[in-house]
Amino acid sequence: MTRYLLPLAAFALLAVVLGVGVRHSKDKGVVASPLIGRPAPQFTLPDLLVAGAPFDSRRMHGRWHALNVWGTWCVECRAEHEVLVAARQAGGLPIVGLNWRDDEAEARRWLAQLGNPYEAVPVDAEGRIAIDYGVYGAPETFLIDPAGVIVHKQIGPLTAEIWERDFLRRAARGKDGS
Amino acid sequence: MRRHAVLLALAGMCAGPAFAIDTTQLPNPALQARYEALTHELRCMQCQNQSIADSPVSLAADLRREVAEQLAAGRSDDDVREYMAARYGDFILFRPRMSARTAWLWSLPGLLLIGGAIVAWRIVRQRAALAANDPDFNGDELDR
């Protein structure tokens, strides 16, 4: 009897370990960011829509806001765009749109055609700021608090529900708390 | 005929490096060697089973540029690893660093080896005891 107990126990242990592994990797594409709870990297970049007046991220200090990473080459960004436009119309949370490795003319055309949900559109042509934010696939959206700390990161396109639950409510709770 | 096919396949494998994605050249061979080693141990986050050295996506190119610039600026290999892990998490490192969270990962093979050795030792001792206590046992059986 004990002959079989040890292999059985080993098998059960292995099954549990693998089971937990499978359960927790249901979405392998999403990697937790080490930047949550850390100060958002500061940057100054040219603004897509305002010539000669670069966007300085410190301009957003003191306000809850979202930083959305997008590009016209990004298919899922198109699906997400109408959610962002609706979010701006509803007010609530200003959105900064970091234009990542994009063609500027294409980006301007995109905003003219589909609507501009952004308060500012810093242009990260070389992708250096995206690296500082640990961006690995657009769209990604960061929620940043008034102290400039990253509170939450959404990887993949926003939906109305995600925007409401993970962004607006968190910001509202933060405002009540302070 | 088959031999030719095998040779052709082998030749194809040798030709691989000629189409390397990365053509970066750093000013001196030592730096170049460190650059190549580092880019091979950093994960491409978009195509997660490739290193940034092997990946054609633009983010991998950006990260290679970052590695090259930092090495050229005199930073150490660990500085570069730290820089990457601070932004993308330990997941970007193909060789996980020793930390409280990864201690079990590093110690597990050793523990398994010790566990296996103990089990094997006990089985051997049990068998030896069985054989010694068996009145029918004679040395010939060992030859079977």
Explained architecture:
The complex is a heterodimer of chains A (178) and B (144). Chain A is α/β, with parallel strands linked by helices and 178 residues long. Chain A has five helices and seven strands. Helices cover 41% and strands 16% of the residues of chain A. Chain B is an all-alpha fold. The longest helix of chain B is centred in the last third of the chain and has 31 residues, at 103-133. The model of chain B is unreliable at 14-18 (pLDDT under 50). Chain A binds chain B through residues 6, 28, 31-35, 101, 126-128, 130-137, and chain B through 45-46, 48, 58-59, 62-63, 66, 85-91, 119.
Give a quick summary of the entry.
The complex is a heterodimer of chains A (178) and B (144). Chain A has helices spanning 2-24, 75-90, 104-114, 128-132, 160-177, and strands at residues 44-45, 55-56, 65-70, 95-100, 123-124, 140-144, 150-155. Chain A starts with a helix and ends with a helix.
CATH class bucket of the largest domain in chain B = Mainly Alpha
Question: What's the β-strand tally of chain B?
Answer: 0
User: What is the straight-line distance between the termini of chain A?
Assistant: 63 Å
How many E strands of chain A?
Answer: 7
Indicate the radius of gyration of chain A in whole angstroms. 21 Å
Structural class of chain A: alpha/beta
Shape descriptor of chain B: elongated
Gap from first CA to last CA of chain B: 46 Å
Q: Could you tell me the mean pLDDT of chain B?
A: 83
Using only C-alpha atoms, the radius of gyration of chain B works out to 26 Å
State the oligomer: heterodimer
Give the low-confidence spans of chain B: 14-18
Largest sheet of chain A: 5 strands, mixed
Helix-strand sequence of chain B? HHHHH
Strand content of chain B: under 5%
CATH superfamily of chain A: Glutaredoxin
CATH topology of chain A: Glutaredoxin
Share in helix of chain B: 55-70%
